Amino acid sequence: MTNRRNFLKTSSAWGAAAALGPSLYTAPAAAASEIEVGVLFSLSGGLSMVEKSLADATLMAMDEINAAGGVNGMMIKPILEDGASDPKTYNEKASKLVIRDRVPTVFGSYTSASRKAVLPVFEKRNNMYFYPTYYEGYECSKNVVYTGAVPNQQLSNFIPWIFKNLNKKKFFIVGSNYVYPREMAKVCKILIEQNGGETVGDEYLELGHSEWGAMVSKIKNSGCDVVLSNVVGASVISFYREFKNQGLTHDKLPICATVTSELEVSAMGAEFAVGSYASYPYFQAIDTDANNAFIERYRKYVNDPAAVTHHALESSYFQVFLWKQAVEKAGEATPNAIREGIKGQVFDAPNGRVTIDPDNLHAYLTPRICQYKPDGQGTIVDEYPEPIQPLPYSAYGETSDNMFCKEGGLDTSKL
Amino acid sequence: MDKTESKFAQKLDWSVYILFFIVVLGLPLLTDDVFWLNRISKYLVYGMLGLAIALSWGYAGILNLGQGLFFGLGAYMFAMSLKLKSYTSLQQGSAEPVPDFMVWNAEPGTPTELCCIVPGSWLWIPFQSQTFGMFMSILLPVFIAFIVASAIFRLRVSGVYVAIITLALVLLVRLLIIDAQPLTNGFNGLTDLGWLTLKGFEFDPYMVATYYLVAISCCIVMLLTRWLVSTRAGLILQSTRDDPNRSRYLGYDVASYQIFFFVVSAAIAGFSGMLYVIAAEFASPTFLDITFSISMVVWAAVGGRSSLIGAVIGALLINSIEAAVSESEIFKEAWKLIIGVIFILVVLLLPRGIAGVARDFAGWLESKSLKAKNSED
Amino acid sequence: MSNIFFIGLSLSSILLLIALGLSITYGAMGVINMAHGELVMIGAYTAVLSGIYLNLNLFFALPLAFLVSAAVGLLMERIIIRRLYGRIIDTLLATWGVAILLQQLIRLEFGLTFFGINIKGLGPGLQKMEVPLFLSENFDVLGVTVQPYRSFIILLTIGLALLTWYIMYRTSIGTQVRAIMRNPQMAAACGIDVKKVSAWTFAYGSGLAGVAGVLLAGFKAVVPTMGSSVVVDGFLVVVVGGVGSLLGTLLSAVVLGQINGFFAILTNDIVARAIVFGVVILIILLRPNGLFGFKSR
Predict the structure, then answer these.
(1) Is C100 within the bounds of a domain?
(2) How many contacts, defined by CB atoms under 8 Å, are there between A and C?
(3) Which residue in B201, B185, B260, B173 sits closest to B225, CA to CA?
(4) φ, ψ dihedrals at B347, nearest 5°
(5) Closest residue to C221, CB basis, from A214, A237, A247
(6) Which residues contact C139 (CB under 8 A, 6 or more apart)?
(7) Is there a contact between A50 and A85 (Cβ–Cβ < 8 Å)?
(8) Which of B6, C24, C222, C288 is the most buried (most CB within 10 A)?
(9) In the structure, what pLDDT confidence band is assigned to residue B343 with cuts at 50, 70 and 90?
(10) What is the rounded average pLDDT for all residues in chain C?
(11) CA-CA distances (angstroms) from residue C293 to B88, B191, B249?
């Protein structure tokens, strides 16, 4: 009798332990001729619309590098993880890639929320994160290489241009409710004041929120003459649609956006964005051989002749090449070596020549402004003659001669 | 399980508990993989959440669809303390710690001081003490649970309406947390936290000591809850679940029992929130998503809503399989589908969950062995 | 001021659209259908797919979505819900499982993703539905700017509410449904085929969800998860209005929508929603049977 009872208990207990057991115990170590890297983007959830394209561009770059012989002869083996549009999941996956898979670098993140969520992992474990998306600045980490625009490359050109060329002075700032739009708004307010304008509104809606009736109504009644949009993701679509549905037009009350790229325009239907403006260092409309060839290759890679390219996508692409050059220069693929190797790296990207600043690990980019046309593409209406230095603390007084973020870290006394 | 069950069943129950403790506490001896141990400690926290649901649902008949509220509050309270202990908080250009997100939410030109950098930031001042954070992570959920439960049960609201109120409540608080971005960092959640420090020892989440902290806490909570339901109060509670009117006629103050156990359940959830933050280094409004709160109910249902240890095992099982399967993207989506189907089947066919199946099987075994014994005579 | 009222009305109509179907299934059947939001989502996807493959526009998508969602609802009822009558909490849980199921089916494109096949219009990404041009252009009436699409939603919702009222109170099958609502055993004893009527009622409620989905697709992004956010709102409207009372659902939708709209303009949408939740909690606490409900089942 006791035997049967014990049998039941023991077997069920071991069954439980087996289910808990590390079933995929340790990932097999990479072959000697491979380098494993992490690729971390949202492949599901509300932001997958954008982030999947970033993952595709990253993987495409890796394929191209492998086809050309790899990194110092070694093939890149990407480990793709899904951040699920949730900062908490991003943190878990980043921990997995860094602590369990022990990759020397991870390429990832679109939203600043996800970047902030994974930052502690890379800083505490001394690993490297290559972040391709434009962001709000105010960050200085020696564990991150930032290849997207910072406000002095996205707003410092945009706001003065709006004053001068569109003759608008009363701004209504609207954004999604998380760190990027909030900090961008702060920078906008500083720039607006410096240029002698007025901020009549500073409002936020939850990320993914799609009911814009009340907000657009507020915009109408605020007396503004230009809308500065830091709205992100699927909300952009509902916003622009509601804007038009309530009778507003971009020639009288233009939306000037920092997060409305070709991708969002194609998802919402180009007719809603016609006449509105956006500021990025890269536009699909850049008419150079390098860019056109890049667009072709991307379309072939994702098997969609109508696919659009956009700034974060282009950065996702070229940052892998910069990483490759860093590894080759350093001779090994470890976080410290990659950090040393990336400083000052130069690459001819589809948007122009990109250099990584050795002090703050950000990218030199060429600010551009476009106006959207009925075909979903932008006409570039303003372009700097050459790339400018990235200054993540520009709104707080940082200049090229007085840099806050240096190799030794952030100089907090200057804040 | 109540005292009227057979001695056999009680012995079985205790044996399962002991075996569970042995497995859980012995795991670090089987492996060096701290990443995996950290994951298991998160699942143990989920187990405690399942247990809290089983306590209020299985024993008290109160279906709490918003348990994430108390979990989230507990998590945030402790995360606030840990946030102020982080390195970045001291890097904002001020002598006292100031969370980084407050700086980027502040109006340009405001001095960087914890009392006044954003409206309401003075609420953070007492959290500079880690002990305060620990107390609050249990006290705040208890306080709110008490108020809510008093309102609900004194007004004799029952059944599905209780569930709907808890649902609306968790959604409400989630919105408030997300909206108060300058105060709570909104949608981004509280990240970049310091580590729990006890007597100078720092608990790195990826360290065996942290696993033991969580595992031992979980075992203690399980034992205490088990003891609680076997007391007279626990029995009366079950009678209020089975027939509240009859209990009232017999003279018991049903509402008091319901309030008490609802509050205990919330305290467990709050405490698990604190443990989760220690293991995950993160507190986020996603803790208050209804999907997460309802998942807790799913774990308890699959494991066995009237069995405390069943609920814990249910949570562990489901999350482990999900983790194992989510290595592959396609299987992860398929797994969610499978979970949906399993859940439907459990509700339709196995209302007492795995624990129910195990008890039935054990009962069948016992009756067979009794028959064999009798036929020998 | 009229703007605020109109926005509130628009929000109310969307709430009512969702709540109408729920009111029927919950009130008539005593079933808490957590998959109602997914039925809305299915309606939206029907509109997207019929737009892509059959080139049907909004107006044809409406009845099509009604049929598709009704069919899915009928299937749900036959297979699962039928076994759970009387077990209200269990229906909540089981239908939640169905909700997950339906979401995943769309996300995995009915399993075809496993084979690497992608159907345009399905999958985890965003879809959109085209709104006919004459509905998206604003026009002026007596100096007031009219938003045609939102007005269309309001009118259609009123129409559906009237239709539902007519069916429930002026037809014999409606009388049977109401009899079942009050006392199913008595109704069965009077010769009403409870099983069949219940099934068709559930199908009707589900069909209404499908119609709501089509209308929502006109201004919301169509994603597999779009249903989860609407089902809770719908439930709160039904519970506040009173289980089993159509009028209660209507009034509660109007009231909650106006509160939402008012506070959205005053503060922001997030706080407004939080306030609505707070109001709902208060109402349930003080009047658990809702504003117009009656004790039944």
Answers:
(1) yes
(2) 79
(3) B260
(4) -65, -40
(5) A237
(6) C145, C146, C148
(7) no
(8) C24
(9) confident
(10) 82
(11) 55, 46, 28
Q: What pLDDT, in 10s, does the model give residues B210-224? A: 999 999 999 999 999
B352 token code pair? 């007492």
Alpha-carbon torsion, ordered C289, C290, C291, C293, to 10 deg: -50
Rounded Cα–Cα distance for residues B53 and B316 (Å): 14
- Chain segment B177-204, per-residue pLDDT in tens: 988 888 898 888 898 888 898 888 888 8
Per residue in B92-104, pLDDT (tens digit) is 777 888 888 888 7
- Indicate whether this model's pTM tops 0.90: no
The DSSP symbol for B87 reads T
Residues of chain B in contact with residue C97, where contact means CB-CB under 8 angstroms, are: 298, 340-344, 347
Report which residue type is found at C145. T
CB of B157 within 8 Å of a chain C CB? The answer is yes
Task: Choose which CATH entry (3.20.20.70, 3.30.70.260, 3.40.50.2300, 3.40.190.80) describes domain A4-149+296-364.
Answer: 3.40.50.2300
Candidates A52, A214, A247; nearest CB to C7? A214
ipTM of the complex: 0.82
For chain B, count helices (H), then strands (E). Answer: 15, 2
DSSP letters, C48-67, are HHHHHHS---HHHHHHHHHH
- The domain covering A152-280 belongs, at the CATH homologous superfamily level, to Response regulator (3.40.50.2300)
Counted residue by residue, chain A has a size of 415
- Asked if C274 lies within 8 A of B294 by C-beta distance, the reply is no
